[in-house]
Amino acid sequence: MAFDEMIFGKIESLLFVAGDDGLAPDQIAAIMNVTKGDAETLLAQLQTNYEQRQDAGITVRKYGGRYRLVTKGEFAEDIAKMLENPSPKSMTQASMEVLAIIAYKQPVTRIEIDDLRGVKSEGPLQTLVAKGLIMEKGRLEGSGRPILYGTTELFLDRFGLESIDRLPPLTEEEEGEQEDTDLFMTKFQEAFNLQEDERGIID
Hints:
By secondary structure, this protein is of the alpha+beta class. It is built from ten helices and five strands; from the N terminus they run H-H-H-E-E-H-H-E-H-H-E-E-H-H-H.
């Protein structure tokens, strides 16, 4: 069966959005309206395309029956250099919001984070994982078994915390206002701003 070349771009987009969760061939088949066999063939071809391109820094890998976009092994040393000294100073507002949610609500899934923020959080999550500030803490039981995220020891070190229990507390009144997402996120940011002011971590 012949496929439009754009179909590879569509699959690439789906894998990018799926992030660490990845996608199974039957999921891609349902979205793309092709058979599972066709989806597996397309995924294999996409992987071959990446491997043959020397100018590509990413490729496709299969983990536990699900396909993910990952960085190529030959660039591991360069990536390690970038991660040698992760610092909250360079973090965007979006990354800070996601980090705050994970710090207070961990373990938490990407979908739960998205619901709280009202926008997709895949980019900030990838940034935080790359900086070593968050990590996978297992998977939630149930459909799709989504990844649960939590903070790392490096997070505690960078924010000057002895333990996660030393995070600035949220009052019961603030915790009860979670239905108002904007106000909830404001409280998160206020808590982190307090921590930053006390420790002088972020300019």
